[in-house]
Design goal:
With 178 residues, the chain is of the alpha/beta class. The protein has one domain (2-176): 2-Layer Sandwich (Nucleotidyltransferase, domain 5). It has 6 helices and 5 strands. The protein has helices spanning 41-59, 76-95, 105-113, 120-131, 140-157, 160-176; strands at 2-7, 12-20, 25-34, 63-67, 100-103. It has a 5-stranded mixed sheet, sandwiched between helices. β4, α2 and β5 form a beta-alpha-beta unit. α1 runs parallel beside α2 and α4 crosses α5 (140-157). The chain is globular and about 45 Å long. The termini are far apart.
Length: 178
């Protein structure tokens, strides 16, 4: 399975293309897109859209994975801007016929580290290990994009039999305890 992970941002949009499954993933490409702060909002959104469309045409992914929208209540403008960027990314994917999966940050962290509240450094170390990298991808937006792509691989390429076996083992342990 080939997945494009995207960490949306108006100034910097990180992306990462990974291929494989839950047991073994390899990095195809990673980087970031940027828009010019001097441009109008519509021009910046179009730049991101055009760049994402080019990545999707070139990489031919099976899916796009994107982090769900989150904004602190003190910064509602950030959520609105991120909604615009996410919309452009989703439109590009839809035009390419590529399904989009959205994951909360806690799910991404849980999927990679087993801890839904893992630190940035824990996440970066796990990305390095899973992809066999010598150092953490930079900027952080690229690492975040790779994390969401790896989360998608983890969530969609695990054998169902293993999940069922794990549930059975957990249930058996609960029964055995007094």
């Amino acid at each position: 399975m080939r997945v494009v992970g995207i960490d949306p941002g108006l100034n910097i949009t990180g992306y990462g293309v990974v291929e494989g499954d839950a047991a073994s993933a390899r990095l195809i490409e990673a980087g970031y897109l940027s828009s010019d702060e001097r441009d109008s909002m519509p021009a910046r959104i179009k730049t991101i859209y055009d760049d994402v469309l080019a990545i999707l045409h070139e990489s031919k992914p099976d899916a796009v994975a994107i982090e769900e929208l989150y904004s602190h209540y003190n910064h509602p403008r950030t959520a609105i801007i991120m909604g615009h960027v996410r919309g452009a990314i989703m439109l590009a994917a839809a035009q390419c016929g590529v399904p989009v999966m959205s994951y909360p940050a806690t799910t991404v962290k849980q999927s990679l580290t087993g801890n839904g509240h893992a630190s940035k450094s824990q996440m970066q170390r796990m990305i390095e290990a899973m992809l066999g990298l010598r150092k953490a991808p930079e900027p952080a937006d690229v690492a975040d994009a790779l994390a969401v792509a790896l989360c998608h691989l983890n969530e969609h390429t695990k054998p169902h039999a293993s999940r069922k076996a794990m549930k059975i083992k957990k249930a058996a342990r609960k029964i055995e305890r007094p």
